[in-house]
């Protein structure tokens, strides 16, 4: 056989052949063409690593097909499943067995199915069994799928079973036609030179017996088991025609059922099921049809009932339960029921049911209780309380309502004080006392002097205020009080506050008083560097001074990221030295909440709060303050769940970026500061997040802004520019060198072909998009970040070094930011070679303070290399007057935070900011797209947006053009 000459005409073809051990395979071959364009007898099997010489005749799709077929070739199979070198003949005759075949063949078929899906009109042939010639007979692939119908004919003696196949409306004869099932997993049938596939999932084993047989007969004495298993399963999955028994189809609207399961000594659970007519199913079955079989022995008749399930609808009901806060073991809803997460008392499932009874009813859920067990009251419970003020006492008239039953609240005294959850109603049902009541009303009963009623001494007015907050003053009534508000009062600074508040800081301090006056929480969302810390310290010092003489101490709690711990401690000592501060961190931290009473402020971290949740939740704080509150943006995070269980009189959140990735980030922070303002999380998603982010609904964005406006205060650098020294910003465009540009263009073309030739941008190819853009950005910076063997330099790297040389050498200091640690490493290696002193900080730096002090205090250390994420918060670097941003980040707010390390309060010199952008690269497009996509987000409280999610196909074309 002659070698195929790539300089002469040839054609890539695909050949279907039967391997003696692996079954049917497809192989790619190149075949030399005769002078008249027909296929010659000269051919060559090609692989990914041998096809380069024929690249001119191989398309991108063909390359992908060849790669897939490499993985099913026998030598590849042997290497993958047999680690030691061995000849194929020895492997298949001595080692390969039926068990191995059953394991390997499905994996082969998965790849063959992908190949068949891409072959389309490419030349496909049947391989010669005699000499292996790859193009013996041309094969066609059916343009449309075929359909299969399974027949059953039950008589007095037996039941006969056989399939029929239709293609384009005509019945196909395939029995005794030398047909072959070439793929079993999702059947493909080779019949008279054509490959047929089917319009529904079909196991090839259901066709194979009938290639050489007209039917299968099942005798009457074994039919019952056969009907219960095989026939029922077949009817669920396929079209079936029957004679001698009935097949009925039931399609009814389903009702979601929540059944309470309870046994003494065990936590209650709810089991989710779906009721279709008289049939009830667990939600674990994903097939759209479920079959139930009934046998009438007297009449000797079988009836199969096909119940059409609304699978997607069922999944939505499950999702709705999870959205409402119901959790299940491993998120499974099966016949074992929903193992709902319960508190220590074991009754939280009832609280969940009672809390969501109206929502469940709106969603169509029916709540049932198992027969023969305790009957629990399911419904809303509420406390109605009025207060009569006397000279020395407050008389409280309080009733609790459980559905139709109105009961004097004093009857619950022993239950509240002894934490007994079950209260028996007059009709014998058991009402579960909400867990929150034990914390809210324990002090009321403890300090009440009467045993047959509720009476409080006037000195306990604080208890009454806390109770009324929960019972008589709803959030809506608080909003109504706000209608009488005219302007924020000017408040004098605290007497012992060491410092001078700037005008806008004084305004923030006044705003804190306004929130406190109306019992609201708030979010202070000033830009980085504007002094959120100093405004908060002034508030805490005022709280200390406003305490009446002899009044018990009030303690506030500050929760923050670990990196900010000592910064806050130093700032508190500087501005409010009389403030007693406790750092609650480390292994030796207190285990007794009583210790908090000796301090005005307890400072701790998000991680410690998660670990010490029980300790903190046992204490009632004056203020709970979250710094960098975006840390609780995920409502399912452990931090948010721990913090929402803490108790305080006031709540305050501090953040420079209240929205990092999505409008949804706002909900948790507002739920912490003002519970109820934005509704529940599911409502907020449907009402605001989806319309604003997916539909670009500006009206909805404006409505959200109006709702949150009184409770969120944000000042930008531009608004207080007169308070700060000037800054100069400049974009420095860098030309890539020749080899860098060539590598960049080839990579861009490869990703462009993959992304723009595929479907519209979405979840399926978002990962490819991210990978492609990441690689292009790295190449635009320095190709060494992608290829460690690359040694031909970078245009941007050279430009940055030139700019460094031009910076005055005497007093100036430079911050160099990059989001890529690999990029910083390139500069580190250069500075090490040149023996240039520098400081360095990334996420792995253990001693941040040492790096900062080196830069601040060492006059010879003029350069500070910082990863943009690690240096985004907690640093005050006013010694720097030059900021180099080496690469643009998707979110301009993150760049702004980097700039804020230098251009912030305390800076007395002009600050120069240089952004380095590689010319004719994706970096230019990123900056352009940033500007185009700011309009909607600017209507809210930040310039943050989810950049990649918002990319359209047009945007993608621009990025990759």
TrEMBL record:
Which parts of the sequence belong to the Helicase C-terminal domain? 799-952
Could you state a single Gene Ontology molecular function term? hydrolase activity
Keyword ATP-binding part of the UniProt annotation: yes
* Domain of life per record: Bacteria
Q: Which PROSITE patterns match?
A: HELICASE_ATP_BIND_1 (PS51192), HELICASE_CTER (PS51194)
Residue limits of the Helicase ATP-binding domain?
513-676
Pfam families this protein is in? Helicase_C, SNF2-rel_dom
Presence of the UniProt keyword Methyltransferase in the record: no
Q: Which UniProt keywords apply?
A: ATP-binding, Helicase, Hydrolase, Nucleotide-binding
> What EC number(s) is this enzyme filed under?
3.6.4.-
Q: What SUPFAM superfamilies does the record tag this protein with?
A: P-loop containing nucleoside triphosphate hydrolases
PANTHER family found in the cross-reference section: SNF2/RAD54 HELICASE FAMILY
| UniProt-recorded name of the protein | DEAD/DEAH box helicase
| Originating organism | Sphingobacterium populi
């Amino acid at each position: 056989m002659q070698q195929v000459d790539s300089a002469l005409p040839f054609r890539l073809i695909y050949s279907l052949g039967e391997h003696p051990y692996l079954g049917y395979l497809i192989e790619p071959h190149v075949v030399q063409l005769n002078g008249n364009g027909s296929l010659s007898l000269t051919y060559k099997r090609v692989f990914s690593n041998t096809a380069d010489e024929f690249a001119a005749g191989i398309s991108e799709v063909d390359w992908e097909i060849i790669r897939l077929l490499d993985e099913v070739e026998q030598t590849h199979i042997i290497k993958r499943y047999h680690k030691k070198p061995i000849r194929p003949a020895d492997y298949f005759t001595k080692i390969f067995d039926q068990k191995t075949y059953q394991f390997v063949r499905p994996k082969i078929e998965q790849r063959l199915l992908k190949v068949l899906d891409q072959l389309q009109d490419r030349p496909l042939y049947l391989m010669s069994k005699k000499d292996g010639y790859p193009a013996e007979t041309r094969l066609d692939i059916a343009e449309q799928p075929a359909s299969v119908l399974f027949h059953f004919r039950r008589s007095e003696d037996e039941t006969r079973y056989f399939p029929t196949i239709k293609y384009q409306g005509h019945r196909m004869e395939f029995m005794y036609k030398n047909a072959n099932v070439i793929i079993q997993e999702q059947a493909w049938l080779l019949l008279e030179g054509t490959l047929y596939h089917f319009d529904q999932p079909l196991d090839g084993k259901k066709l194979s017996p009938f290639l050489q047989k007209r039917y299968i007969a099942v005798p009457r004495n074994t039919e019952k088991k056969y009907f219960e298993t095989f026939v029922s399963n077949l009817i669920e999955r396929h079209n079936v025609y029957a004679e001698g028994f009935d097949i009925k189809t039931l399609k009814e609207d389903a009702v979601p059922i929540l059944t309470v399961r309870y046994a003494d000594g065990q936590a209650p659970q709810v089991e989710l099921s779906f009721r279709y007519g008289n049939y009830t199913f667990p939600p674990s079955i994903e097939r759209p049809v479920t079959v139930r079989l009934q046998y009438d022995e007297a009449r000797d008749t079988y009836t199969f009932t096909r119940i059409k399930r609304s699978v997607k609808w069922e999944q939505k009901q499950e999702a709705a339960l999870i959205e409402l806060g119901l959790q299940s073991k491993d998120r499974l809803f099966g016949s074992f029921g929903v193992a709902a997460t319960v508190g220590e008392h074991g009754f939280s499932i009832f609280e969940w049911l009672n809390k969501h009874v109206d929502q469940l009813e709106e969603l169509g859920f029916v709540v049932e209780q198992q027969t023969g067990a305790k009957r629990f009251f399911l419904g809303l419970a509420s406390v109605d309380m009025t207060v009569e003020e006397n000279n020395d006492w407050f008389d409280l008239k309080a009733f609790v309502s459980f559905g139709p039953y109105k009961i004097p609240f004093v009857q619950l005294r022993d239950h509240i004080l002894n934490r007994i959850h079950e209260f028996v109603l007059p009709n014998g049902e058991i009402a579960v006392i909400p867990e929150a009541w034990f914390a809210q009303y324990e002090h009321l009963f403890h300090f009440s002097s009467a045993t047959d009623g509720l009476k409080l001494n006037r000195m306990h007015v604080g208890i009454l205020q806390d109770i009324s907050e929960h019972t008589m003053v709803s959030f809506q009534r608080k909003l109504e009080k706000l209608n009488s508000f005219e302007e924020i009062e000017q408040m004098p600074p605290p007497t012992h506050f060491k410092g001078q508040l700037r005008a806008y800081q004084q305004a923030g301090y006044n705003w804190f008083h306004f929130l406190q006056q109306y019992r609201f929480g708030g979010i202070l969302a000033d830009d980085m560097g504007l002094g959120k810390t100093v405004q908060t310290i002034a508030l805490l010092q005022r709280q200390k001074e406003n305490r009446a003489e002899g009044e018990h101490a009030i303690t506030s709690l500050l929760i923050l990221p670990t990196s900010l711990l000592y910064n806050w401690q130093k700032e508190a000592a500087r501005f409010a030295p009389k403030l007693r501060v406790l750092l609650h961190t480390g292994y030796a931290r207190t285990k007794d909440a009583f210790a908090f009473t000796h301090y005005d402020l307890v400072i701790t971290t998000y991680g410690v709060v998660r670990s010490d949740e029980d300790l903190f939740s046992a204490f009632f704080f004056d203020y709970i303050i979250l710094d960098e509150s975006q840390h609780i943006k995920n409502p399912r995070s452990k931090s948010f769940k721990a913090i929402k269980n803490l108790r305080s009189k006031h709540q305050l959140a501090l953040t420079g970026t209240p929205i990092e990735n999505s409008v949804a980030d706002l909900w948790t922070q507002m739920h912490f500061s003002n519970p109820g303002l934005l509704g529940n999380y599911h409502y907020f998603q449907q009402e605001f997040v989806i319309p604003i982010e997916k539909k670009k609904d500006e009206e909805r964005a404006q409505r959200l802004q109006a709702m949150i406006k009184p409770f969120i205060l944000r000042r930008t650098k531009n608004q207080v520019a007169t308070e700060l020294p000037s800054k100069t910003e400049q974009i420095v465009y860098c030309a890539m060198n020749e080899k860098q540009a060539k590598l960049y263009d080839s990579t861009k073309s490869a990703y462009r072909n993959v992304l723009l030739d595929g479907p519209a941008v979405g979840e399926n190819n978002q990962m490819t998009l991210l990978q492609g853009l990441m690689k292009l950005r790295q190449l635009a910076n320095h190709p060494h970040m992608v290829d460690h063997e690359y040694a031909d330099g970078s245009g941007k790297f050279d430009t940055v070094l030139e700019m460094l040389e031009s910076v005055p050498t005497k007093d100036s200091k430079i911050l160099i930011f990059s989001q890529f640690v690999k990029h910083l490493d390139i500069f580190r290696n250069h500075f090490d070679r040149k023996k240039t002193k520098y400081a360095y900080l990334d996420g792995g730096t253990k001693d941040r303070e040492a790096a900062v002090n080196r830069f601040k205090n060492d006059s010879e250390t003029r350069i500070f290399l910082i990863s943009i994420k690690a240096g985004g918060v907690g640093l005050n670097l006013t010694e720097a007057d030059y900021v180099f941003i080496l690469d643009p980040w998707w979110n301009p707010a993150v760049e702004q935070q980097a700039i804020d390390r230098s251009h912030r309060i305390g800076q007395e010199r002009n600050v120069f900011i240089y952004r380095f952008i590689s010319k004719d690269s994706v970096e230019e497009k990123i900056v352009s797209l940033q500007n185009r996509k700011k309009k909607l987000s600017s209507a809210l409280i930040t310039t943050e947006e989810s950049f990649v999610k918002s990319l359209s196909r047009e945007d993608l074309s621009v990025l990759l053009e």
